[in-house]
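Structure, all two chains, one model.
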Amino acid sequence: MRAGLRAAAAACALVLALSGLAGCSQEGASDTVVLGATAAPPTLDLTTNNAAAIPQTLLYNVYETLLRVDDGGELRPLLARSWSQSADGLRYAFRLDDRARFASGARVDAAAVADSLNRMRSRPTIEVVRTQLAAVAAVSAQGEDTVVITLKQRDNFLLYNLSGVAGIIIDPARRSDLARHPAGSGPYRVTGFSPGESVDLEASATAWHERPQVPRVRFSYYADATSQTAALLSGDLDVITDLTTPQAVSRFSDPKRFTVTRGTTNGEVVLGLNNFTKALSDRRVREAINMAIDRKGLLDVVWNGQGTLIGSMVPPTDPWYTDLSKRWPYDPARARSLLAQAGHAHGLTLRLRVPTLPYATASTRVITDMLGRVGITVVTDELEFPARWLDVVYTRADYDMTVIAHVEPHDIVNWANPDYYWRYRNPTFTRLIAEAASGPAGQSTAKMRQAATILSDDAAGDFLYLMPKITVAKAGITGLQRNAASLSFDLTSLRRSSR
Amino acid sequence: MTPLRRLARSLAELILSLLVASLIVYGLLNLLPGDVAQVMLGTNADPTAAAKLRAELGLNRPFPVRYADWMGGLLTGNLGSSVVSGEPIAPEIASRLAVTGWLVGLAMALAVLACLPAGIYAAVHRRRARGFAVSAASQILMSLPAFLAGILLILVFSVTLGWLPAGSYVPLTQSPPDWLRHIVLPVCALALVQAAVLARYVRSAFIDVLADDHLRTARAVGWRLWPALLRHGLRNASISLVTVLGLQLSTLLVGAIVIEQVFVIPGLGSYLLDAVSMRDLVVVADVVMVLVAMVLLITFLVDLLVVLIDPRLRVTADVQEEQ
């Protein structure tokens, strides 16, 4: 018995000692802001890997672009102080900010910018970069401060594309090991990378613009949402960049301890329909699916009512946004009669193959139930993400329906590709997208708006909702962007008030 | 059979098992659907770009060539590089093995320390309420998934009490006190379940010991129960315990994979899971082979240890040999 008591006393002493240590080390760490994110970057080389987690960490923080997208989706100067466009739209001239410096101290001059962009378009490893820079004929330096881009044909999206991954400017002298040591001109530089766990950023000594207020930032990656919320509640984390479990919001309701911001993203969650299959090539069936699903109800279940109903592939931060969420109102009776007209009065069976992502699997149950009520039997299949889903659904299009968020900016253009996994073929839509890109600039927005409406009218897919951006921060942390209009989790305005 | 011949045979078995395992591991991994080129290029890739990348990465070579290449690398100590990040795999495995090693080693030590008194206590008092209570508690803890144990510990010690961090890891070399603070909860989460499992084995082993003639004799000549148990019982019970420990070490490794996810610890488990989802097959094959080798090696060592502890086994083996 005495031994037991002694053991208990020793355990208590150990715990007390540990809690004492807890106090010490938190004091020392206060100049670091720890951000909890969900998906970890597999590598830091964003020229070879398309994972959205890489630009989330590096874009605007470590790498900079000629111009940037602000929180409202507007273009702003960054490395370029100003720019101009020739009357025929085939020549852009960018005037660089002469203060701009890479983390190595080297100047971001016109030669470096031209070198970087030329390399990006001549050796594109990721497809999105190749298509985004496809219209570029040449990039050249004129003197130290001016970069000229000439185009093969007009490209109304070029400026926007240059504000993303395709337009990052890499230090030409330091690009041998981008997977570990990104070499940009941003206010932060990478000081540590533990794949799957964390990325450490430190304010760059040569930051050429306003030095960041927070000297050190750590992105910590949590595969498990419960661990992530627990980490914020216990004080290990300062910010959750993207809360994926909306039920947990109520745990952060004390405004003295936490700030919760809700904004929009670029992530359209689409019930993708394989337009090539026999049943779904019939527009009436697609309309029926759109009318059989109560999107508001689905959002209530899956996201606790947070998120935005959009009705097409366009987020509100895009200039051609129109609210199309009422285009296919919830009407199960009409859905049933449409199905009957299409020859499925006695029922229809469809395969719903979803990735193993929380929002997708949660949506699956609701969709299965709602479609079941109008006579569509849904056979569900959960595919491990990314590998299996990409293989079965994306590459082989071996599916009828799927649910996935498309987070790339301006990704409505994917519908113009008839071989994309939706297998959507509409020449009018394709023509409108092409004209919006290379026609007169003044008509671009109107054409994009028209294309979005066609997509909605065609019931090409069911545009379930736009992912919400729920950011939770400890009280005292400010300067976080409300919306996710670009792929970046922008740290440039991050502040922590002194305690 | 002489001890030396026995050792040689076990070693030969070990090497053969490793060879067979390598073929199965590499073969099965190649049957997995999904490929790394597609994952790297994401949802904007066209088939030609994916095919080009696949060729660049050497993924379209025939299976025997890739297997021979990989095996040759393993034998010469070259584990290759990750396809996704381009980083060499060997140092990554080494650094992560150190982390997982601490986790598993400490959890096992803690579990053994806890299971012995609990198991013996439950055996001695098996006909009383308190003995039953210990058994029931271990039954409940046993059925607790390591994942849940981790979350519960986080809720109590990190969120409610705020004593210990809820996750992440600090290397021992960087700061021993911080390392200790970060590793306490994951080790406890692993050890808790493990101790419960082991306590049941200890209990049943000691129930046998209690009925044993040795013990009755010891008691008859005036030994008190606990010293007698420790002196005479422990050696007998340790034979089955060592065997079970060997087996449990592999389940502990699996448990560590889950715990590393919950506590965001950069160990071998999280490396493996990330590589699987990215279809970084060389990394997966290497890590799995390291795990297989460890399990086989443990089994081998356990066999040796049991023979060392239990002289009867050697005798029987010799007798059988002579017949």
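The longest helix of chain B spans residues 225-263.
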